[in-house]
Amino acid sequence: xxxxxxxxxxxxxxxxxxxxxxGGSQAMDRSxxxxxxxxxxxxxxxxxxxPDEARGxxxxxxxxxxxxxxxxxxxxxxxxxxxxxxxRQESRxxxxxxxxxxxxxxxxxxxxxxxxxxxxxxxxxxxxxxQPVTVLLAGGEEVPFTFASKELVxxxxxxxxxxxxxxxxxxxxxxxxxxxxxxxxxxxxxxxVDYAQGLVALGGDDSELATENLKRHIxxxxxxxxxxxxxxxxxxxxxxxxxxxxxxxxxxxxxxxxDVKISGQFYGxxxxx
Length: 273
Description:
Elements: H1 4-22, H2 35-38, E1 58-59, E2 66-82, E3 92-98, E4 106-116, E5 119-128, E6 130-136, E7 142-148, E8 150-157, E9 160-161, E10 166-173, H3 207-213, E11 220-232, E12 237-247, E13 259-272
Antiparallel strand pairs: 1-9, 2-3, 2-4, 2-13, 3-6, 4-5, 5-8, 6-7, 8-10, 10-11, 11-12, 12-13
């Protein structure tokens, strides 16, 4: 009897146990990896993390010039607000499965941090600050939306960045579709047909079809909370959890938006500018 298959099975089991026990606690050092190391692994979608003992605080001076840089937001859960089944029930958020695999995170987001009195204000200026994401609900419905942090203006109490800092504010969520993005009926804002070929007899004037035939560019308004729970005072790094509320895609005005709740981890670096 050959023991090689049994030995290979034991080694594979040991490797699986070691990986499961050690993975997830520390992020890979991005400075030492190549494109081939990260290709098709999903690691590029992860955000760096800080150890649990990173509980420092960074004091900020009045009139000082600061920037938050390298901000990364990795959504891990998405909930969609569903309609109640009867009038006695209230609308509630239903968890969906993220179908977008390796490109759902925001990264390299940056902006100014101002200190005024006993509060701080972060004003987002740019970066990879939007990503198209689609989630699948239990009933089979797919809900697309643009996860973003564009033009985020978030404020927090205090004059320091610490594990108790909660930056909260509003942002702009861009339209999921662009002006030349064709819908399933080949309609768009600047290209395609004015109305679906099967509706020619109606002349495209039916009031029930007007919202689908006449495309519009519609941005949404979101609200975000960045809850810092880890700070490394020596390196200026900070990390924590975020929660964002924003509308879903409207198919450029063709359907009603639904409320979406996104939560996950974030990371960033505080620098003096």
